[in-house]
Structure formats: C-alpha cells, structure tokens
Amino acid sequence: MEEVCARFVSQKISKARWRPLPAAALQPPDLFATGSWDNEDNRVSVWSVGDVGSAGLNGEYQGEPQLLCDIRHNGDVMDMQFLDQERIVVASSTGSVTIFRHHQNNQTLSASHRWENAHYHADQYTACGGAACTGVICNNPEIVTVGEDGRINLFRADQKDAVRTIDNADSSTLHAVTFLRTTEILTVNSIGQLKIWDFRQQRNEPAQIFSLTGDRVPLHCVDRHPSQQHIVATGGQDGMLSIWDIRQGTMPVSLLNAHEAEMWEVHFHPSNPDHLFTCSEDGSLWHWDTSTDVSEKPSFLHQGGRSTAYISHSTINQSVVSAWLSNDPTKDRMEITNLIPNQTLSVNTLDVLGPCLVYGTDAEAIYVNRQLFA
Amino acid sequence: HLTAVTPGPVSITWGEEANPHLTTTSFQALSSAWDPAYLVLTQPPTMLTAGSIHRYTEEGLTPIALFQVSKNYRSVIRACMEDMHQAAISTRDSALQSQYSIQVICTGPLLLRLLDWVQLHICDVDNMVREVLSSENPSKHKLFWNVVDIFVLQGRMDEARHLLSKEAIANPTSMNMYKILDDLMKKMPVPSLGNTQTLTEMELKWQHWHEECQRYLQDGTFASNSHMESICKILLGDENAILEKKELMTTWYHFLVTRLLYSHPTVKPMELRFYAQSSMDMFLGEESSPEPLDTILMAAFEFELHQVIKECSVALSNWWFVAHLTDLLDHCKLLQSHNLYFGSNMREFLLLEYASGLFSHPSLWQLGVDYFDHCPEYGRVYLELHIERIPLNTEQKALKVLRICEQRQMHEQVRSICKIMAMKALRNNRLGSALSWSIRAKDAAFATLISDRFLKDYCERGCFSDLDLIDNLGPSMLLSDRLTFLGKYREFHRLYGEKRFSEAARLLLMLMTAHIAPCSFWMTLLTDALPLLEQKEVIFSAEQTYELMRCLEDLTAGKLNRQKFQDDDVETMKVEMLRLALARNLARVIVKEGTLEGS
Prior knowledge:
Largest sheet of chain B: 2 strands, antiparallel
GO cellular component, one term (chain B): nuclear membrane
CATH class of chain A: Mainly Beta
Strand content of chain B: under 5%
Number of domains of chain B: 5
Structural class of chain B: mainly alpha
Number of helices of chain B: 32
Family (chain B): Belongs to the nucleoporin Nup85 family.
Distance between the termini of chain A: 13 Å
Oligomer: heterodimer
GO molecular function, one term (chain B): structural constituent of nuclear pore
Protein name (chain B): Nuclear pore complex protein Nup85
Number of helices of chain A: 0
Subcellular location (chain B): Nucleus, Nuclear pore complex
C-alpha cells in the first residue's frame, strides 16, 4: 500500500499549505490549500484528506485528497499562508494581496479583503505597473508581504491601508520573508543577502545584513528554527542550503550542497525541528534528519535512495547545542533522503505539519504523505 | 494492483486489466496532466509524451503490452468521457481515434479486439443500461428490451442472458422460449484468445450452430415474442434485423462489428475493408455522406497508414493525435519513414508541429520542451526559437526557463533572456535585480551599463543609492571594470567616512592611475581629493601629488580640445582650486619630507 497519495489536478501547483491545527489538537491535519500558476485561469483550492477510518473496502481511497472548493485567482499564486483557521492570505503576481475566507458550512471560498496595489513599479512610462508579490507571512492579525519591487508592507487584517511600508527596502528582488520575532522579520533577496528588519525602528534600514561568502547567489527561501530562534536556514539558486546563526557573524555557519537547481522552499518541521525539508526545481524533495540517536531513528518508507553522509561543516563558532550548528564529528551524522523516487518536473512547494507532508509539482500533481515518521 | 487517480472526480482502479509490467512511472506518465477541460477544448491529454513511449519500447515492451498500455489509457479516457457526457462530440472523436490506432498494431483474434473496442467506445448506451439494471424490476422497464438488444449487438452474451433470465422469471409462460434462446446464446462459438481450436474447427462449429438457430427460427419457436424473434434473427446475422436497431448502434462501425460477429466471426484483418465499405453504405443509406471521421476509419480499415495520417492531419484541429500515432508507429517500425525534402522525417515533422502548438499555450510550454528534446534533427533549433518567446511575467518563471536553457547548454538564449529581464529591471529602477541578472548571464557589458547608472545617480544626487548592493558586491565585482570601479569608489567613501585618510588617498590615486576609473569620472575623483588635500595633516606624499597633478593636466588638456562652453566658469574654478590645493600640498609635503626626523 502506498503512503504517498498522488492527485493529478491539471494545473501547475505553486503553493500548498496545511491548515494550522488548533493549539491543543492531537489529530493530524486534514485540510490543505493550494494555489496554481501559469494558467490563464489560476485557482486557489481547498482540499481535504480523508480520515483513515473512512477508507474504502480495500483501502483504495485512503488519504486521497478531495477537492472541497476553489475560487478563481487573478495572476499566479506566488505565496500563500493561513492567517487563521478560516482565512488564507494569497500573494499574486499582479502585485495584489488577497485574504480568502473558507466558509466551512457550505464549503465555499470567498475573497474577504484585497490590497490591490501592494506591490508596484513606479515606472516612468506607465502610471503604475504591478510588481509580483513574492512572499507573504502572517502572525495574526499582522501580515507582512515582500515583492519584486523591493518593497516591504506590513498590513493588519482588518485595516484597509498598510500599517507600514518600506519603499525600496532592497535594490533587488525580495524573494521570501519570515518572522524572526513578533516585531522582526527576515528577508532574502536576489543578491544573496539575508536581512533582519525591526519594525520598532522608525528608520527604513535593515537592522542587520548577512551575506553569503563567495558568489552572491540569489536566495529563494528562508525559514527559522521553531524553538531556537537564532538558527535560520536559507536555500539558494544553486540549490545550496545555508544554515546561519544570526547571533554572530555575517556569514553562514554551514553550506550544504544539496540540489542541482533552485531550492524553492525550506521548512523546519514545526514540532520536530531536527528534521528539515527542502524542495527544488530539479524535481527532488529532500528530508534532512539530524536527530542524533541513529539506532532509534524511525524508518521511513521510501522508494528513493537512502544516503547517510558525513557532512563537513565549515563552522565559525561551535558553542551551540543544536545539531544544525554543531560540528562534532561523532554527532555529525545527517541522514538525507530523497522522498521522490522518479523525478520529473519541479517540486515547487512543500508543507509539513505533524506526520503529514504535502507537496505540489509542475507536473500538475499534488502528493500527500500522512505517515512521514511511520 | 495499481491505484491511480485521474483529475476530475473520477478515480480508476486497475484491476485485472492491469499489466503487471507497467510501473507506476509509466502509468503516471500516461495519465498525468490530464485536464477534462482540455478534452472539452479538443486539446487532448498531453503527458503521453514521445519520451514515455520511447521508454517503453526501450524496455522491450511488445506491441501486445503496448496495447495494454493503450487499453488502460482508453479506460481512463472513457471514464473522463462518461463524466463529461455533455461535452463536445469532438472529444469522442479523439478518443475513438486513439483507440483505433492501437487496433492496427495489435495482434490476436481480430473480432475479439473489435468487440472490445466497440464496448469501450460506445458509452452513450451506458446510461440506459445503468438505468435498467438499477431499477427494481428490470424486466418491466420500458427500455428493458433495448438493453438486451444492446448486449446482443455488442456480443455481451452473458449479460444478455442474465437479463433475459429475469424476464423468464417474471413471465413463466415464455420459459420455454427463453430456455431455447438462452441455450443458443450459451453455445455460440466465439474465437478464443487461447487459440485452442483451429480455424476450420471453429468454422465448422459455427456453421453447425448457425443452422441450429436457423431451424428454431423457421419452426416458429419465437413467433409469439417479437423481441426474442428479432434477437434470434440478429444471432443469425440477418442484416435487416440488425439494421432495425440502428439507433442503438448509433454508428456504422458498430454495425460493421455486429455484422461480422454474427456472419463472419473468423474475419481476418485483411478482409475488413470489404465489409467496412458495404457496412457504411448500408448503414448510412442514401441520406448522409461520410464525415471526415468516417474517411479516416475507412483508411484505417484498409491499413493505409499514410492515408490515415493524412486524413487525420486534415480533419483534426490539433496535432496531438497524429503526432502520437506517428511516433508510436515509428517506434514499432511500422511506418516507412522517407525523408521529406526539407530534411526531417514525418514523425519528427509532426512532433515538431505538435510541440510548437504546445508553446502557444500559457502553461504547456514545459511539455513542449520534452517533445523537442526527442526530435533529433530540428528539435534543438525549434526549441531555441520558441523558448525565447515565452512571455515572462514573473522572475520565477524566467528562472525556470533559464534552468531549461542551461541544462541544454543554450548559452545564447540564457544571455538573451537575462538581458531582457535586466532591462526590465533597469527600467523599473531595480538596479540590484538588474545586476543580479547580469551576473547570472555573466554579461560584462550589462554590468557596465548598470554601474554607469549608479555613477550617474551619484553624480546627480551626491550620494549612493542602494548602498546595500554596492557594499556587498563580493567577487561579482570583477565581472566588469566599471563595476570594480564602483565597488572601489564606494570603498573610498567608506574609508573616508572612517577617517582612514591615507588609505583612502592611496585608493583614490590607484583608481586613476590604474585606469580603473572612466575618464568621465576623473573630475569627480579629483574633486573628491580636495578635502584630503585641504586637511591639516599632509596626506598625499610628493609622489602622489605629482601623480595627481599629472592627472589634472591630462584631464584639462583633453577638455581644451573638446571646448566645452556651458560649465565653463564652474569648471575653470574647479580646476583653479585644484591647482591651488595641489600646489599648496606639494609645498607642504616637500617641506615635510625634506625635514629630517628628530632634527
């Protein structure tokens, strides 16, 4: 029996996100949203993954995603995030940011609020050309967006205008944003810089700038360790995974050669942060596992190849506990597994919550694995 | 057991039909990227790529296995069609043709295959069948006999007998008739897959059975029940009786198959054409003339492959079917491909046409790339031309296109796309983005252009924009001289700001003497030297001062030739001030250097 369920959806999937679980929930997530790109008619869709209990006679339909509802979206879905249990914030390639509300009672989606020109180019030839909004992150009720215009916007879900806008925050494209603390965000851009912005400061300058050593390869994604907030992971255009310690230095702590093409998303597992997941244009999805106790390591059901490798880290400072930053050789075993047995087109997105993984590809398919640590 | 899911609300489980040799890969390749909407738009499923078929033949799949693959494929199509019964008729056409094409390749008893085909294809009647079967009392349903007739016409004897048994139970009076009919249907000889009997044996049996049916009919056994009588006539192959059921058959090729089933069950492929033509004439009668689809089928029945391809190319609205059919035939070496006068063979020509069509679709261009990869002669050229013309509305899409180009070493296209993106960025005043694109393309000329922009901004505003970029250029600074200058110049400013004057001075001088600075900027640099010259402490050494003076003279000599009149006063004043400052500095430094330490 396969643990990964595939669903062909006839649209290229650019983003997939699990609906967050209520704080004390014990059950795995059962609902996720996806966004498509590159169609004339793009859609934001909500899917449910059936309970194990509702399997068919021979378990054929177990876990297969069912479409609950969808809604037309103007422009490519560039990024997506759940604001709360019912609202989804979607960033568009037209430069607008929309909040969609998922009505549970009749299973419909509706647009509840839109910031039409969140991102734009002030062009001398046209009045206002739209610029793609490339990243969005939420911390209810605050929403931060970044775009190709190098602008950072801070919105509040209930307010019509932006609370704060930093124009020309960056001279290059901002590719992704995430929260560092409640008032600080991290952004990555296309000249290989990781910047910290503090909203408490009035000046429109980053609080701190980190750069890659060597070539300024564009960075495409960023994620912060769930519990140890000084550890940040970024993925670059050359497929390299960089681990940063933002308390010290301006250069990454480790550089790990990973994919062969752009790394689109990187995620620490929210409850098991020793596990990291990355997906890439080369069609692979890697699971990085630094949990140190090898003997008790859960065995994954994969069709892909397993490789256990000693990774030599080029560390600068080694006073930390986390496996991500340590360079102790005996503990330095990182197991890296490719979760996709036969790669075709790019894996654009992934999301992981509890024991469940969802990822979407340019091959117009969504995959769900509900037994990640089985 | 392969469980796979197709898009739309239909799920298919492959039961016994599955070929155990098919891997999940190949199956997914078949059925992925399937959009029912595409079917509506008569743009059929797209993932049946040339590549995947190529893979099959490489793995040594025989035509039979290929047939299985197509059968699965057809089942999926059928499921989609059932689901979208209201969709345009053209969807049925494309499905039909795909089914038929594989027929040509297959082996095994022809009749069985034809029956199979008809059963899969004619799905109009499924609703009726479902309705009757699911009703409480099927034998009382008004369409009951229609359904029985359909089963008989399609050779589905067991199902027909099953239904008839219900009728027998409901009408005990006709039990006798029913028993005889049932017996006849059960005994009907059909060519078996196993080929346990020879052809002559089969024919003998069939003849014997046929005569038995004939006897029962002539005895008037079924005289009291017209339905059963007509069924018996059908079993005998009575063409008129079969033609009476025209609406149930809907198409002339169904009629053909039924006719063959009941009059010539051992038909061979080569004989098909004779029956096909007469069937079509009989069915269509006087009123209608053959449609394009019919012409295609006729050509197919005659095994005129080239004719089929030609007719399809003319009749169909896109190249999907023809391209894939030709590719399949080519791989099975059934197609004598002669070189067309413009160089490539037919298979490649059709694939190129199809792939070009894909590129005009907003999202299918990624698939087109795969197709071009499989055209050995012209594929690359076509790809090079098409890939530059994909509209790039976001940077992420441009990155994906670039990755495709880089994987195929299409350096020209990489440069051209990066240049387009960089120009767009430049026009939107996103200098950092523009620089990042030029770095990707290793485009020194563009980097120079961007640096000039920065320097122009500096001259106009007196300060640098985008310091975060210039301060962090790193090794990319070396991409172009101008960019290096920009980085170093910014460093000069920084050193000055940190009050490291002697280092700043040295850098400034180096910028001029090593000719890193463009001539147009020398005036600015010299003006920047002024505050250093005016410092209380002597910064420039004598050597350095001489160098500076030389630079100034070079500059003014050049300017005199060009005779600028506009900023004359300002320029002259600047030059005067510089000369004065330099002279003063020289004086001080000579004294300082001439002074012995400690004396």
